[in-house]
Protein backbone atom coordinates (compact mmCIF):
# COMPACT_ATOMS: atom_id res chain seq x y z
CA UNK A 1 0.00 0.00 0.00
CA UNK A 2 1.54 3.28 -1.12
CA UNK A 3 0.77 6.36 0.93
CA UNK A 4 1.46 9.90 -0.12
CA UNK A 5 3.96 11.76 2.07
CA UNK A 6 2.89 15.03 3.59
CA UNK A 7 6.22 15.91 5.19
CA UNK A 8 7.91 19.01 3.83
CA UNK A 9 11.28 18.05 2.33
CA UNK A 10 14.03 20.21 0.92
CA UNK A 11 15.70 19.19 -2.33
CA UNK A 12 19.49 18.89 -2.03
CA UNK A 13 20.71 16.85 -5.00
CA UNK A 14 24.46 16.30 -5.30
CA UNK A 15 25.42 18.62 -2.49
CA UNK A 16 25.52 16.74 0.80
CA UNK A 17 27.47 13.49 0.53
CA UNK A 18 26.54 10.62 2.83
CA UNK A 19 29.16 8.21 4.16
CA UNK A 20 28.96 4.86 5.90
CA UNK A 21 29.94 5.80 9.47
CA UNK A 22 31.67 2.46 10.09
CA UNK A 23 33.75 2.17 6.90
CA UNK A 24 33.89 5.89 5.94
CA UNK A 25 33.04 4.88 2.35
CA UNK A 26 30.69 7.11 0.35
CA UNK A 27 27.10 5.86 0.07
CA UNK A 28 25.60 8.60 -2.09
CA UNK A 29 24.07 12.05 -1.85
CA UNK A 30 21.06 13.40 0.00
CA UNK A 31 18.19 14.05 -2.41
CA UNK A 32 15.90 15.52 0.23
CA UNK A 33 15.52 15.39 3.97
CA UNK A 34 13.21 16.06 6.87
CA UNK A 35 13.26 15.47 10.61
CA UNK A 36 11.76 12.02 10.03
CA UNK A 37 13.72 10.76 7.04
CA UNK A 38 15.73 11.33 3.92
CA UNK A 39 16.12 10.18 0.35
CA UNK A 40 19.53 8.97 -0.72
CA UNK A 41 20.65 9.07 -4.36
CA UNK A 42 23.26 6.37 -4.96
CA UNK A 43 24.91 4.28 -7.66
CA UNK A 44 23.67 1.04 -6.07
CA UNK A 45 20.29 0.05 -4.62
CA UNK A 46 20.06 -0.11 -0.83
CA UNK A 47 18.91 -3.16 1.13
CA UNK A 48 15.30 -2.54 2.19
CA UNK A 49 14.73 -3.17 5.90
CA UNK A 50 18.41 -2.79 6.80
CA UNK A 51 19.63 -0.26 9.34
CA UNK A 52 22.54 1.90 8.21
CA UNK A 53 25.00 3.91 10.29
CA UNK A 54 25.47 7.13 8.31
CA UNK A 55 27.60 10.24 8.47
CA UNK A 56 27.39 13.65 6.84
CA UNK A 57 30.54 15.71 6.47
CA UNK A 58 29.31 19.28 6.37
CA UNK A 59 31.96 21.74 5.14
CA UNK A 60 33.31 24.01 7.87
CA UNK A 61 35.87 26.78 8.17
CA UNK A 62 38.69 24.67 9.60
CA UNK A 63 37.43 21.09 9.25
CA UNK A 64 34.25 19.33 8.21
CA UNK A 65 31.51 19.05 10.83
CA UNK A 66 30.55 15.39 11.31
CA UNK A 67 26.86 14.57 11.77
CA UNK A 68 26.23 10.93 12.64
CA UNK A 69 22.84 9.24 12.50
CA UNK A 70 21.17 5.87 12.02
CA UNK A 71 18.45 5.20 9.47
CA UNK A 72 16.45 2.23 8.21
CA UNK A 73 15.88 1.80 4.48
CA UNK A 74 12.14 1.77 3.71
CA UNK A 75 12.29 1.48 -0.09
CA UNK A 76 14.77 1.53 -2.96
CA UNK A 77 14.11 1.92 -6.70
CA UNK A 78 15.92 2.83 -9.87
CA UNK A 79 15.95 6.54 -10.64
CA UNK A 80 14.97 7.97 -14.02
CA UNK A 81 18.68 8.78 -14.44
CA UNK A 82 20.44 5.63 -15.69
CA UNK A 83 22.86 4.21 -13.12
CA UNK A 84 21.22 5.98 -10.16
CA UNK A 85 18.96 4.65 -7.42
CA UNK A 86 16.69 6.49 -5.00
CA UNK A 87 16.22 5.04 -1.51
CA UNK A 88 13.99 6.29 1.28
CA UNK A 89 15.19 6.10 4.88
CA UNK A 90 13.42 6.54 8.21
CA UNK A 91 15.62 8.06 10.89
CA UNK A 92 16.22 6.21 14.13
CA UNK A 93 16.24 8.79 16.95
CA UNK A 94 17.89 11.69 15.05
CA UNK A 95 20.71 13.42 16.91
CA UNK A 96 20.53 17.05 18.01
CA UNK A 97 23.11 17.87 15.31
CA UNK A 98 20.89 16.35 12.61
CA UNK A 99 17.83 18.25 13.87
CA UNK A 100 19.84 21.49 13.93
CA UNK A 101 21.02 20.93 10.36
CA UNK A 102 17.48 20.29 9.08
CA UNK A 103 16.27 23.45 10.83
CA UNK A 104 19.17 25.44 9.36
CA UNK A 105 18.46 24.14 5.85
CA UNK A 106 14.74 24.84 6.22
CA UNK A 107 15.56 28.43 7.20
CA UNK A 108 18.15 28.81 4.42
CA UNK A 109 15.82 27.53 1.68
CA UNK A 110 12.68 29.31 2.90
CA UNK A 111 11.33 32.51 1.44
CA UNK A 112 11.43 35.35 3.99
CA UNK A 113 9.53 38.38 2.66
CA UNK A 114 10.75 41.78 3.71
CA UNK A 115 8.34 43.71 5.88
CA UNK A 116 6.89 46.84 4.28
CA UNK A 117 8.17 50.11 5.68
CA UNK A 118 5.71 52.90 6.27
CATH-defined architecture: Beta Barrel
- Rg over alpha carbons: 16 Å
- Examine the coordinates and then state which fold CATH places here, giving the name of the CATH topology: Thrombin, subunit H
Number of domains: 1
Strand content: 35-45%
How many strand segments? 7
- Main sheet specs: 6 strands, antiparallel, barrel
SSE order, as H and E?
EEEEEEEH
Distance between the termini: 54 Å
Helix content: 10-25%
Task: Report the principal-axis shape.
Answer: globular
Going by CATH, the homologous superfamily would be predicted glycosyltransferase like domains
Q: Helical stretch count? A: 1
Please provide a written account of the structure.
With 118 residues, the chain is mainly beta. The chain has one domain: Thrombin, subunit H (Beta Barrel). The chain contains one helix and seven strands. The chain has one helix at residues 96-109, and strands at 10-11, 17-20, 26-33, 37-42, 51-58, 65-78, 85-92. The protein has a six-stranded antiparallel beta barrel. The termini are far apart. Mean pLDDT is 83; it is low at 10-14. Residues 4-95 form the PilZ domain.
Features:
1 helix, 42% strand, mainly beta, Pilus assembly protein PilZ, 6-stranded antiparallel β-barrel, 118 residues, 7 strands, Thrombin, subunit H, 12% helix
Task: Give a brief description.
The protein is mainly β and 118 residues long.
Topology (elements, then pairings):
Blueprint (H helix, E strand, L loop, with lengths): L9 E2 L5 E4 L5 E8 L3 E6 L8 E8 L6 E14 L6 E8 L3 H14 L9
Antiparallel strand pairs: 1-3, 2-3, 2-5, 3-4, 4-7, 5-6, 6-7
Amino acid sequence: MHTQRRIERHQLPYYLKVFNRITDRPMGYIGNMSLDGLMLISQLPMLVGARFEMRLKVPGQNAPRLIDFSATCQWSREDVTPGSFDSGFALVAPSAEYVEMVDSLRHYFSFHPLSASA
